[in-house]
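Entry 0007
Protein: Zn-ribbon-containing, possibly RNA-binding protein and truncated derivatives
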Amino acid sequence: MRRQAPRALDSALDGLVAQLRPATTLARVQEAWPRAVGPALSAETEPVSERRGTVTVSCRSAVWAQELQMMSTELLANVNRVMEEGFGASAVDSLRFVAAGRGGRSVRRR
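Output (structure tokens):
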């Protein structure tokens, strides 16, 4: 058996990271969410489900849900841009914001 030449660590890690990437759309959105919306909004929200291209985002309050629904076009563009950069594809058609405890799980404490 012949030994392979050593590979650079960064190329070996790139292959490993690609294999470990989340497989579901929701998992990819959850990974991209903090970069797409920023730390302030990420602390108040959490993507909790995805169905047929619509991601439901649980918000800490009804006020947050209403405010973010009005910003949904911009946030959707950011999510799809970050997903395209990180995963090579975007699969989110719309965002639905709900107050914690209504139609989604509660926002986890950070």
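Curator remark: The domain at 23-99 is CATH 3.30.300.180 (GMP Synthetase; Chain A, domain 3). The two ends are 51 Å apart (CA to CA).
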